[in-house]
Amino acid sequence: MTDLNKLTIAEARDALKKGETTSVALTEACLAAIDAQGVLNAVVHKTPELAMEQAKAADARGYADAPALSGIPLGIKDLFCVKGVDTQAASGILKGFKPEYDSTVTTKLFENGAVMLGKTNMDEFAMGSSNEHSAYGPSVNPWKVDDRQLTPGGSSGGSASAVAADLCIGAIGTDTGGSIRQPAAFTGTVGIRPTYGRVSRYGIVAYASSLDQAGPMTKTVRDTAIMLTAMSGHDMRDSTSADIAVPDFEAALTGDIKGKTIGIPREYRLDGLNAEIAGLWDKGADMLRDAGAKVVDVSLPHTKYALPAYYVIAPAEASSNLARYDGVRFGHRATLGAGDGINEMYEKTRAEGFGAEVQRRIMVGTYVLSAGFYDAYYNRARKVRTLIKRDFENVFASGVDAILAPTTPSPAFGIGEVSDADPVQMYLNDVFTVTLNLAGLPGVSVPAGLDANGLPLGLQLIGKPWEEADLLNIAYSLEGSTGFVAKPQKWW
Amino acid sequence: MSIDTDTARRVAKLARIKVEEDALPALAQEFSAILGFIEQLEEVDVDGIEPMTSVTPQRLKRRDDVVTDGSQQQAVLKNAPDAREGFFAVPKVVE
């Protein structure tokens, strides 16, 4: 077989079962592709020795009755702790940090036979929508239509770039405000953010704990279903992980969506919405209707306030979570001057170790939690969050099974195009994705077509809590209808 | 709300991040832009609305109150920038 790295998880699994290839061959193909990644800068810590060891173990075990991801090479976002492997969250402050333990997600993947190729690039501490805020330098989108280098989105930009460029068979990311779905949309790949509590957060470097969820990033909806089944489940080490049975998400993919009701939220039709995205959205609704679903208009009245509420709650939680980076227990410590005490150590260490966007969010979070502002900002934002969740509850209570919306307000943009001087411009990238993080809901992005320049665009389906099986089945139907098969041409 | 350099200095201090004096005006301007954006929330009627504490209403799981982990001093100190004689070492704390 040629181009083994281009296989999907389902294809690789079937080829392994039939004895047409080996995990060693698959892994070598991916490692060679990673070595040739060049400017994509998608994989930032390579683990070829670990990968080959895991691949050989999978081959030795054999593929009859093998676990779901046996021998499948994956990219792991740099946010997941893996014992003895650099885990830096793309931050200078964690340079050289090698955890002494594994995250629950990677443990589950490894128990399911997965092979780890390396750590993927991201925005520092998952704060960003372009992968430009990274101690490793930006990751680049394999999609390219002119002289510009485009961002793969963020924060899980390296995972998205690696999947789209066939550097790996699949990858994992995390999604706090859109960090799986927006990069998936920018790179023509599939990604799901599961219901809050579906996947354990243990061993994932924390950004905003009430919003963070990990999920798969893959080439197809089927692959996402396979990986999500392997990653999910209750974990005693994460008290917010739900003790709810995990269905076989792949088995739910029948493609039959007759009788389902799909909501189209009118508040997402923003003034000045990109015409091609608006058109694609209408087309997506038509496809679901043609497949037998009923399409209805719905209202989510507090949509407009999701982004400002997010930019209170997420920085507030980040300022608390990131207080642990103090130069004492792990990571960077600044060189101190004569007479410097512990406060100078904290202040210099954090100024040197954190990048500009992370510093900005920590300080905004500090401000909104400070005495005198806590009620005006933080408590108000949490009340608005209650209203945003209620909006979704009302829509689902009216009989809607899933909501269809664009994933992003634009296709991938060029590196450096969104000004650093006005952070709010970058934040607007999350306008369609952030609502469901606040409501704790699952959302999946599916590539839906190319724009006039040839760049991929994504549509997003938002589901009811714990109904990822139903949601993925609707996504599977949409994927079949769009017939999206475009891949970036290799230029890197 | 417009943030002045004094407020920016105070927030940086609270966050334990050293910001040079000449960087404060730009920082204050960024804060003002972000807070200006956040202030849209004032338009929302939140009377009688409870602030969200848990996005998925669930009773947190409990376990028996017994020791399940520990005795891992080496592992705990492994990544410390300065560990001595089984302790984390820090600069002078008390004047």
CATH superfamily membership of chain A: Amidase signature (AS) domain
Going across the major beta sheet of chain B, what is the strand order? Answer: 1-2
| Fraction in beta strands of chain A | 5-15%
User: Number of helical segments of chain B?
Assistant: 3
Order of helices and strands of chain B: HHHEE
Order of helices and strands of chain A: HHEHEHEHEHEEHEHEHHHHEHHEEH
Secondary-structure-based class of chain B equals mainly alpha
Taken from the alpha-carbon principal axes, the silhouette of chain B is: flat
Our measurement of the CA-to-CA distance between the termini of chain A, rounded to an integer number of angstroms, reads 23 Å
Strand adjacency order, main sheet of chain A: 1-3-2-4-6-5-10-11-9-7-8
* Chain pair forming the biggest interface: A-B, 76 and 52 residues
Using the 3D structure, state the CATH architecture of chain A. Answer: Alpha-Beta Complex
Radius of gyration of chain B: 22 Å
Using DSSP, what is the number of strands of chain B? 2
Low-confidence stretches of chain A: none
Tally of DSSP β-strands of chain A: 11
